Amino acid sequence: MLEQLKQWDRELFIYLNSLGVESYDDFWIFVTQPEHWIPLHILFFALFFLSFHWRKAVLTSLFLLAAVFTTWGFTNVVKGIALRLRPNNTPDLVEVIRILQEPTNYSFFSGHASTSFAAVTFIVLALKEKSNWIFLAYIWPIIFVLSRIFVGVHYPGDILVGALVGVIMAHIFFWLYQKSGKRFYI
């Protein structure tokens, strides 16, 4: 069963990767770089300070950072255990896929997916009472993770599992945040 899932994942990756159009390559290379999203991250933190008293904004920011960095660490531990080669490092795929980046670490599961979905889910949970529009923040991780397929470095399964892990971690840290917020009367 696991081998069948891997085969479907590989076939879906090849199909999705082949949908990439050369004229959009620069866009996907740009959006896949985390540092290009720094202005958006600053906006998210600013929203905390615009929506809450400064003490609650600081606490919310700290829990968001804890959620993201814990997710990132957990992702790297799992990558070290799973040892799944990235598509761009798989010899029999190199000739049939488009490769725009060539990282050498492992693929399962996507750190871009896990950390971006952890961040946005936590932000949405924290701000959904303040704004109905905050759900639009999910546009960022969706574009971010799609880029990983188009640049040739992640299978769809890596992204789906990463997103799921991120959402779960965000809910755990948001629960902890709510518990500690009541404790500090924020």
Provide the fold topology.
Layout: H1 2-18, H2 25-31, H3 38-51, H4 54-82, H5 111-127, H6 139-150, H7 156-183
Helix pairs in contact: 2-6, 3-4, 4-5, 4-7, 5-6, 5-7
Core attributes:
186 residues; transmembrane; 67% helix
Tell me what the structure shows.
With 186 residues, the chain is mainly alpha-helical. The protein has one domain (41-183). Helices cover 67% and strands 0% of the residues. It has seven helices and no strands. Helix 5 runs antiparallel to helix 6 and helix 5 packs parallel to helix 7. The protein starts with a helix and ends with a helix. This is Phosphatase PAP2 family protein. The chain crosses the membrane at residues 37-55, 62-85, 105-127, 134-153, 159-177.
